[in-house]
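TEACHING EXERCISE
Course module: macromolecular assemblies
Task: Read the component lines below, then compare them to the predicted structure of the full complex.
Student: A.B.
Group: 4
Components provided:
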Amino acid sequence: MKNNNILAVDAMGGDFGPSVVVPGALQAAKQCGAKILFVGLEDKIQEVLDTLPDDLKAVDYSIVHASQVVEMNEKPSDILRQKKDSSIQVACRLVKDGEAHAVISAGHSGACVACGMFIIGRISGVERPCLATIMPSKTTPRLLLDVGANVECKPYHLFQFALMGAAFAKDILEYEEPRVGILSIGEEEGKGTSTVKEAYDLLKVAQHLNFVGNVEGRDIFIGDVDVVVCDGFVGNIALKLSEGLAFSLTHVLKKELTGNGLLPKIGAFLAKKAFLKFKKKIDYAEYGGAPLLGLKGISFVCHGSSNKRAIESAVLMANTYIEKDTHNKLLNSLKENEELTSFARSV
Amino acid sequence: MKNNNILAVDAMGGDFGPSVVVPGALQAAKQCGAKILFVGLEDKIQEVLDTLPDDLKAVDYSIVHASQVVEMNEKPSDILRQKKDSSIQVACRLVKDGEAHAVISAGHSGACVACGMFIIGRISGVERPCLATIMPSKTTPRLLLDVGANVECKPYHLFQFALMGAAFAKDILEYEEPRVGILSIGEEEGKGTSTVKEAYDLLKVAQHLNFVGNVEGRDIFIGDVDVVVCDGFVGNIALKLSEGLAFSLTHVLKKELTGNGLLPKIGAFLAKKAFLKFKKKIDYAEYGGAPLLGLKGISFVCHGSSNKRAIESAVLMANTYIEKDTHNKLLNSLKENEELTSFARSV
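Instructor-supplied answer key:
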C-alpha cells in the first residue's frame, strides 16, 4: 500500500486551517500510502494531531515548521517578498528542492499561483500557468480552465491551456479523446472576442487534440464537451456563479419541498435523502483541488472553504497525478505543439 | 382599461412563431389595454388568430404584413441589408416612424440589436445599446447587463450600462436606490481586467448612482446587489451558464427525489408540486423580455424559446415601460453623467 510519493500539505491554508487539513490529508494518506509533510506552525499542527485517533495517524507523516501565516487580504506579491517563511512558500520550496513531489494548499489562491510561478517555476515555453477546476454535471464531470490565475490572456495562452487541460482530462478523468471547446457566445466559428477567434484558429490546427470548436455557457453543464477553455476572468466568474446558483436553487427548492404544509414530515424525510445524494453529485468537495497546470512541479489549489473531504480528494488526486506521470503527458502535448505556439507568440 | 399605447409585436420571432407569440401578446393586451400590431406574414398570423377563442380577440389589434422571414443562421448585417421587409425590420420602422411606441421580438437577437441600432437609432451620446436581463434569485430579482449586444466594451460603455440599468431597476423593478455592482473576480477595488478597473473609477464618481463596487459571480444570485454590470461576452456566458446549470440541477434532483424506490409515489407527488413552484420562482418566462437599453425607442428582446407566458410578460413590461415613462428616466441619468462620459471617451 505504501508508495514513495511525498506530498507537501500547507496545513495553515483554508478557512479552517489545520483542523480540517490535517485529518483530511491523513485520511488520504491512509488510502493511497503517500507520505505527508505538514507545513506550518508546528504547535498548531501538533495540537490537531493530538486530538486525532491513532489509526488515522498510522501513516507516514512529519511536520515541517513554517513560522509565518498568510492572511487572506495580503497581496500575492507582498506574500512572495515578505513572507519567505510562510507555509505556502516553504511547501513550494520543498517541491522545488525535490523533497516533495507535489504541494497541496487551500490557502490564498493568488499566493499559491505566485509561489508556484516564482518558486517552483514554469515549464519552459509556458508563460502562464492556469488553474483548472472539475465541474460536476448531469452526466460526466468537465474540466474548466483557467478559473482565475490569469485575468487577461493572449490567444496562445488559451491554446496552451487547452493542451494542458486535454492531457489532464485524458489521464486523470480517463476520457479517451477529451472533447475540447473554447468558451464563447455562439457555436459558430467567428463568434466571440478577437482573442477567442485567434485561439480558435490555433486550436483548429493543434496536434493530437480533439477540438470541437466554440461552446456556450450552458455547455459547461449540458453540452457535448469535456474540457472548456477560457481566460481566468471569465472562468472565475463562471465558477463562482455556479456555486452561487447551486446554493440558491438548492435553498429555494428545499424550502418548497419541506415547507408546503402538505405531508411535511414525509416531504422533509424524502427531501433529506434526495438532497444528500444530490449534494454528493454536485459537490465540489468530491473533486477536491484545482490543479495549477504549467509549472515544473505539481501543485493543487483547494477552495478556501474546503472541508476534510475536499482536502482528502485533492491529496488523492495529487497522488494519482504522480503515479500516472501526468506531468510528462502535459509536457509531451506542449512539445508536440511547440512550433505552433512559438509562431502564435511571434505574431 | 384601454390605453393609448401601441406595441409592435414581431409575430414571426422565436422557435414557435405566431402560434405562441399571437396568443401571448393578446393575453397581455387583455390585461393592460394596449393596442397590438402583429408584424409578419399576414396569412400565418390570421391562421393562428382563427384558432383562438373570441374573448381573447376582444382587444385592439391589427396585422401589419411583412413579406420576409429571418432565419436564425443569417448574419445580422445581411438581415439589415437584404431583408428590408422582414418582420423585425418592419416592426422597428413602426417605432422609428412613431406608429408604435415599442417593439417586442423573440426573433434573432443579433438582428434585433442591429435593427434597433440602425433603424430606431441610438440615444445621442450612447455608442453601445445593451441587452439587460432579469435574473431570478433566492430573494429579489437582479438585473444583469450587457448579456450579449457588445462582445468587447470600453470602460465608458460599462459606465453607461450601469446608468441605464439603474434607471430601469428603479422604475421597473421598483428598487428605491438600486445597488449597482461591476462584475469582477474579487470584491476589492483593483481586481479585474483593465477595463473593469477603469469603469470602476468612473462609477465611483457617478452622479446619483448607488455604486457598491466589484461583485463576484456568486453575487448575481446571493449577493447584496441589484444591478450587475459586465460586457456582453461575460454576460452572455453568465446567462447561458445559469440556464444550463438550473436545467442540470433540476434534472439531477428530480431524479433523486422520484427514483429512489422509497415511497416513490408520495415522493413524486410532493416533488411535482415543489417543482412547479420552484419553476415559477426561477423561470425566466416570468420576466419575459430583455430590454435593449440605449435606443431612441423602446425594444424588448425575448428568448428564442419563449412560451406564451414569456411573450405575455414581455408585452406587459413594455407597456409598463411606456406608462412609467422609464425612457426619460434613462435619458436623465445619462444626461446627469454626460460630462463624465465625454471625459472618459476622450482619454
